[in-house]
Amino acid sequence: MTRPNDPLAGQLALVTGGGSGIGLGCARELVRDGASVMLAARNTDRLASAADELRSVAYGGAEVHVQACDVTSESSVAEACAAAQAAGRLTMVVANAGFGTGGPIHLTSLDDWEGIMRTNLTGAFLTIKHSVPILSANGGGSIVAVSSIAGVSTHRFMTPYDVSKAGLEMLIRQTADELGCRNIRANAVRPGLVPTDATEGLMSLDTIVADYMEQMPLGRVGTTEDIGQLVRFLLGPESSWITGTCISIDGGHHLRRGPNIEPAMEMVLGDQRYPAGPA
Q1: Higher model confidence: residue 81 or residue 202?
Q2: Beta strand 246-249 with 90-95: parallel, antiparallel or unpaired?
Q3: Which fold, 12-271?
Q4: 232 CB contacts (<8 Å, ≥6 apart)?
């Protein structure tokens, strides 16, 4: 149902990792302003539940599509982009799918390293690769990637995640520089600590949460609504002269230091969290 003052009416957004957490938070803000959305994720049950919510009366009968998608598979991403093209006028893309784990560098397996890189960095690359021809054909559009404070602040014992997000930010800058001539904008957001399924482990230890709080001038965790509202702004016409930026949205955490998750590593690994020293 289109309302007369919907600024995003007639446009469709593809949201990877859209079944829950920040991805779903972004979709909520988009449908509130009249956009159609294509939620893409691996967990089809979550997709169905998210779609039901977005179609509810609270969002004015939003047009919501779902697509099973594994962003580590190029064919799967290509299919999701094609499905979005078929569902409406694709002008907005949220590259949100991602995850992270904790562990010391010297105990990080190659499988763990590559798994995070394939999802967080290669997955975003594939999403951009297969969506930009559609955006260009539609006259342009906006891409927003979900990075992290970890893209600019070291997080000890989270090396693969940090490196993947730092690479993601350069990917966004490259995309913005290369495709501005096709009226395609690309930006990223850097969330701090936001309660989601992905951060459940971090938030289970009071000492770690307290350390996060000490590094935030605003002194509170974020919400998916906080992140969704910034993503919505960067996708919409209000930000039409903004591209190639990576904006921190973290309660000011980036002004201080990265979080200390060593208590969790000590609990799990003890002295093994560091390589052995001299005999």
Answers
A1: 81
A2: unpaired
A3: Rossmann fold (3.40.50)
A4: 26, 29, 30, 33
DSSP string, 60-92: TS--EEEEE--TT-HHHHHHHHHHHHHHS-EEE
Q: What number is the average pLDDT over the span 112-134? A: 98
Query: Do residues 143 and 90 make contact, with C-beta atoms less than 8 angstroms apart?
Result: no
Question: Residue 167: what pLDDT?
Answer: 98
pLDDT at 103 over 90: yes
CB-CB contact of 189 with 230 (8 Å): yes
Q: Can you point out the beta strands (E) in 96-234? A: 141-146, 184-191
Place of tokens 């921190």: 248
Edge-to-edge order in the sheet of strand 184-191: 64-68, 36-41, 12-16, 90-95, 141-146, 184-191, 246-249
**Rounded Cα–Cα distance for residues 153 and 260 (Å):** 11
Active site residues: 161
Pair 37, 27: CB distance under 8 Å: yes
Q: What is the CA radius of gyration of the chain?
A: 19
What is the residue whose two structure tokens read 């992140």? 227
- Kindly tell me if the per-residue pLDDT of 197 is higher than 80: yes
Interior angle at CA 65, CA 197 and CA 185, nearest 5:
80
Residues 6+ apart with CB under 8 A from 19: 39, 41, 43, 46, 47, 49, 50
Average pLDDT of span 149-164: 96
Written as six digits, the tokens of 254 are 């980036």
Comparing 11-15, 71-75, 182-186, 200-204, the range with the smallest average pLDDT is 200-204
For residues 160 and 108, the answer to whether their CB atoms sit within 8 Å is yes
